[in-house]
Design brief:
alpha+beta, elongated
């Protein structure tokens, strides 16, 4: 499990801690989990 903190910026008022287990390398790249694109683009 990986952890990252997003700091406040133009979109965030306060820091947000993220936890994830799969690195996103970009759509169509080798070893990229395709289900992340499906979830992101499912509207």
């Amino acid at each position: 499990m990986h952890e990252k903190t997003l700091r406040p910026n133009g979109f965030l008022k306060q820091s947000v801690r993220l936890f994830y287990h799969t690195r996103y390398t970009g759509k169509g790249n080798p070893r990229n989990p395709g289900y992340l694109n499906d979830l992101k683009n499912d509207r």
